[in-house]
Design a protein that fits this description.
Rossmann fold, alpha/beta, two-stranded antiparallel sheet
């Protein structure tokens, strides 16, 4: 059997990833690394669904990493996430444990699994502003005219945003020919994808949304604003924070906000699945299961769990 250095639990929002990861961590005496672009922020608890109370199984607390690592107003980008991830990952390995990666942020998952090496290249606001006026097709055609290098063959040109970033990286490397990129060290993970039926996913999303409203989602956003977190920052975080901010700005009433937010979360779950399928096409093997029990049976068959 192939030697795996980690277990990955991925899936769309509200598919039960944390619950599954916690039980697996308990069964194999390990620790969880959260792979979520919003859970890194402190004080963003209800809207991000941290559910820290879930990190306990059979009265045993399960250690977790990369949750609550920075303040809401701080800038925390994927490059910093990669660096923090490597520290946590190596710490768990040194303790002779198998790290469990759990999350639904596809880009962040792919970045740490494949060890993307271009994330440290800085943003070029001027170049981005110039490129925004072009269509995706025009940007792709322009990119193909750039001088050949090792990055050009790997560039992702599937969307306008990614193609602009590809231009940014390519232009940086052209002007900084002496820039030394580290050798990537990809992981060898066993990846489980939780994929409940669309109907069950939709039901779980709506049920969880109402639960978060009851837990005080609106109050959480109000407190964040009062503490000095800007509307712009919260709007940029999307979904729960964006819609509650718009509610507080008087854009619509509470009932309409819940309705629109529920639809937006369902659309987000669909985009997550699209990204996971893209990860598969790029060579990552994802073992899809419908539920928690199927995942545990799979891990037992693979001898992860005795």
């Amino acid at each position: 059997m192939k030697n795996f250095d980690s277990i990955v639990i991925l899936g769309p929002t509200a598919s039960g990833k944390t619950k599954l990861a916690v039980e697996i961590a308990y069964l194999i005496s390990s620790e969880i690394i959260s792979i979520d672009s919003r859970m890194v922020y402190k004080k963003l608890n209800i809207g991000t669904g941290k559910d820290l109370g879930e990190y306990c199984f059979e009265n045993k607390s399960i250690p977790y990493h990369l949750i609550d690592v920075c303040e809401p107003n701080e800038s925390y980008h994927i490059y910093q996430f990669q660096q923090d991830f490597k520290m946590a990952f190596n710490q768990i390995l040194e303790a002779k444990k198998t790290p469990i990666l759990c999350g639904g942020s596809g880009l962040y998952l792919e970045a740490v699994i494949k060890d993307f090496i271009y994330t440290g290249i800085p943003v070029n606001p001027l170049l981005r502003a110039q490129l925004e006026m072009f269509s995706l097709t025009q940007l792709q055609e322009q990119f193909l005219l750039l001088p050949e290098n090792s990055f050009k063959k790997k560039a992702d040109l599937e969307s306008k945003k990614r193609t602009i970033r590809a231009h940014e990286i390519a232009h940086f490397l052209l002007k900084n020919s002496d820039f030394l990129l580290p050798e990537p060290k990809p992981l060898e993970p066993f990846i489980i994808g939780l994929n409940p039926t669309v109907d069950l996913r939709r039901e779980n999303i709506i049920k969880r949304l109402h639960a978060r409203m009851d837990e005080g989602l609106i109050e959480e956003v109000s407190c964040l604003l009062k503490s000095g977190v800007s509307f712009e920052k919260l709007l940029s975080l999307g979904l729960e924070y964006k819609f509650v901010c718009e509610l507080l700005m008087g854009k619509y009433n509470k009932q309409k906000m819940i309705e629109l937010l529920g639809i937006a979360i369902q659309q987000f779950a669909k985009r997550q699945m699209t990204y996971f399928r893209k990860m598969e096409k790029s060579g990552l093997k994802i073992n899809w299961v419908c539920n928690h029990d199927e995942a545990l049976i799979l891990l037992k068959n693979k001898k992860f769990i005795v």
